[in-house]
Write a structure and sequence with these properties.
The structure is a homodimer. The first copy, chain A, is built from 16 helices and 2 strands. A two-stranded antiparallel ribbon of chain A has the order 1-2. The two termini of chain A are about 30 Å apart. Chain A has helices at about 5-20, 25-35, 45-50, 60-85, 95-100, 100-120, 125-145, 155-180, 185-210, 215-220, 225-230, 235-240, 245-255, 260-270, 275-295, 300-315; strands at about 90, 90-95. Chain A has a single domain (about 5-315), classed as Farnesyl Diphosphate Synthase (Orthogonal Bundle). The radius of gyration of chain A is 20 Å and the shape is globular. Helix content of chain A is about 75%, strand content about 0%. The first copy, chain A, has about 325 residues and is an all-alpha fold. The longest helix of chain A is centred in the middle third of the chain and has 26 residues, at about 155-180. The interface between A and B is large, with 43 and 43 residues.
C-alpha cells in the first residue's frame, strides 16, 4: 500500500541515487556533497513518486525520474541563491556565501546537466520534452520576477504567472512525467497534473505569505526577505492596492530597504488586508488542486495527494 | 561543393533559427535579442555543419543541431562572464555588466534549456547522450579551473584537462553529433571527432597565448585578463617552472593583481620561455588535429577541416 512511510523509504533510494554520483575532481565533489548533505521537503520528487506509483515494475526508473526532478530543483535553488544574493539555504550557509558566486553558477550548471544526463538515460521522449520545457519555463519565471523588483505597477496576473512558472511548473511536470512513466490513462494524467500544478501555485503563494509571518522562530529563517530584496509579492501587492497615498509612499520606501522595522510593516500590510487577501488566493488554488485530486480514481494515490495537500496548506515553514 | 561561402550561408540559416525564438515576455526577449544581436566565430556550429555535410537530405536537422550547439556555447559564455566578472564580451558590454549577475545567471539558464528543448526535438538518443555529457563536462572544466586560481602548484596535466573540458569537449561533441546526424561510418566519426577535439584544445591554448600577446590593438580586447583574475594558464605555468626564487615571488605577486605593468610581466614570461613553450604545446595539438583530419576520406570535408585548422593556427584574435 502507498503511504507516507513508503514514500519516505523510496525517497531514501532516490537520495542514494543522487549521492552515488562519484566525481574524482575534488572541487566538484566537495560542492556536490555539500549541497546534497541534507534535503528539503522534496515535494516535487514525492509528486513524481506518487504519480508513478501504480506501476510496481518500474521501481528503478521511478527513482531515477525522482532523482532527475530533485536535481533540476536543486540546480534552480543554487542559482536562485546567486540571483538573490542569499546567504542562507535550508538553515545553513549557501554555496555562494561559503565559496563564491562563481562556484554557485558553475555547480548549478553541473547539477542541471547531470539531471539532463539521467533524463536521457530514462530514454522517454515525452519526459524529455516535458522536463526541458519546464526547465525553460522556470528560468522564464525567474526572469519575469526580476521585473517585479521595485515595481508597484505589477499586475495580479503577472504575479500569478511568476508563481506558476517558478513553482507550479515543476510541480506540474513532476506529476505529469510520473504519469507518463507509469503509462497511465489520459484522464489520470490530466487530473494529477492539474492537481499538482495548482498545488505548486498555492505552495508559492503560501511561501510568499510565510515571508510576512510574524514569528521568525517558527519558520526558521529571516522574514521579510522579499521586501528587503525589493520584490513585490502578493501581501505587498494587495496591501498597496488599498493603501492611501501616504501609505503608498511608505510602502514604496520599504522596497529594497535592508533595515526593516518588521513589526511596523507587517502591521500595515495586515491592516490593509494584504495577508487576508493572499490567504484567500492561496485557498482558491488549494481548492482547485483538491477538486482535481478528488477526480483521481486510484484510491491510494487520491488519498496520498489529498494528504500532501493538507500538509501543504497547514505548513508553518 | 562544400566551401567557406556555403558554410557561411548555412550559418545564416542557423542564426535565423536561433533568432526565431519569439518570446512575449519583455525581459526575456530584450536579453535574448541583445545576446544574439551579433555572433562570434561560431566555430563549433561550423564544425557540426561540416561534419554532417555529407548528407544533403537533412538540411533542416543540421541547422537545428548547429543552433543547439551555438545555444549551448552561448549559455556557457554568458555564465562565464558572471563567473569571471567580465565587463566585455565580443567587443561590447556583457549582460552582467549592463544588467546584473542575476540577469546573466537566469538568461544563461534560459538559453541552456532552450538548447535542450531543440535537442529533444531532434529526437536522436545518441546526440542527446553526447550533448548532455558534454555540457556536464564543460561545467566540470570550469569548476576545476577555479582550482587554478592563484595556484602555482597546478600541473600541466591539470591545465590540459581544463582546456579539454572547457573547450575541446564541445568541439568534439559538435563534430561527433554532426557525424551521428549524417549517419556516417564509424571510422569517419572517429577521425572527425578526434580532429575536432584536438583542434579545440589547441584553440584554447592559443587563446591563453593571445592573452599574453603584446599588441592589445590587434586582438581587440584587454590583454593579461587571466593573470588579473589570478588564473594560472600555460604561459605563466611554463615561465614559473623556469623562474628563479626571486622571479617566482614576483610572478606570484602578479596573480590577481588588477594593476599590471603589462610590458614587464610579458617580458619576464617571454624571457623565461613561457610563450615559446606554450606555442610548442599548441603546435603539438594542431599537429594531432591535422593528422586526424588527413585520415578523413571525404575530400571536401577533409579540406574544409584543414582550412579551419589553418585559420585557427594563424588567428591573431
Amino acid at each position: 500500500m502507498l503511504n507516507v512511510n513508503l514514500i519516505n523509504k523510496e525517497l531514501k533510494q532516490v537520495n542514494n541515487l543522487i549521492k552515488k554520483d562519484i566525481i574524482k575532481e575534488r572541487t566538484v565533489s566537495k560542492l556536490y556533497k555539500y549541497i546534497f548533505r541534507s534535503s528539503g521537503k522534496q515535494l516535487r520528487a514525492k509528486l513524481s513518486l506518487i504519480s508513478s506509483s501504480s506501476d510496481k515494475k518500474i521501481r528503478l526508473r521511478r527513482y531515477k525520474l525522482a532523482a532527475v526532478i530533485e536535481l533540476l530543483h536543486t540546480a534552480t535553488l543554487v542559482h536562485d541563491d546567486v540571483v538573490d544574493e542569499s546567504e542562507i539555504r535550508r538553515g545553513t550557509k549557501s554555496v555562494n556565501n561559503i565559496w563564491s558566486n562563481a562556484h554557485g553558477v558553475l555547480i548549478g550548471d553541473y547539477i542541471y546537466s547531470k539531471a539532463f544526463m539521467l533524463m536521457v538515460e530514462l530514454g522517454n521522449p515525452k519526459i524529455l520534452d516535458e522536463l526541458s520545457k519546464a526547465t525553460n519555463d522556470i528560468s522564464k519565471g525567474e526572469l519575469i520576477q526580476l521585473d517585479a523588483i521595485k515595481n508597484t505597477k505589477i499586475t495580479l496576473e503577472k504575479l500569478e504567472d511568476i508563481s506558476y512558472f517558478k513553482t507550479g511548473r515543476l510541480f506540474e511536470a513532476s506529476a505529469k512525467c510520473g504519469a507518463i512513466l507509469a503509462r497511465s490513462s489520459n484522464s489520470y494524467q490530466r487530473n494529477i497534473t492539474n492537481c499538482s500544478k495548482n498545488l505548486g501555485v498555492a505552495f508559492q503563494i503560501k511561501d510568499d505569505l510565510l515571508d510576512y509571518s510574524s514569528d521568525e522562530a517558527i519558520i526558521g529563517k529571516p522574514i521579510l526577505q522579499d521586501i528587503r530584496e525589493g520584490k513585490v509579492t502578493y501581501p505587498f501587492y494587495f496591501a498597496y492596492k488599498k493603501a492611501s497615498l501616504e501609505e503608498k509612499k511608505y510602502l514604496e520606501s520599504k522596497l529594497g530597504d535592508k533595515k526593516q522595522n518588521n513589526k511596523k510593516i507587517i502591521e500595515l500590510i495586515t491592516n490593509l488586508g494584504g495577508i487576508k487577501e493572499t490567504e484567500n488566493l492561496a485557498i482558491k488554488y488549494f481548492m482547485k488542486s483538491k477538486q482535481a485530486a478528488s477526480k483521481i480514481e486510484n484510491k491510494n494515490i487520491r488519498e496520498e495527494m489529498l494528504n500532501l495537500l493538507n500538509v501543504s496548506i497547514h505548513r508553518k515553514k
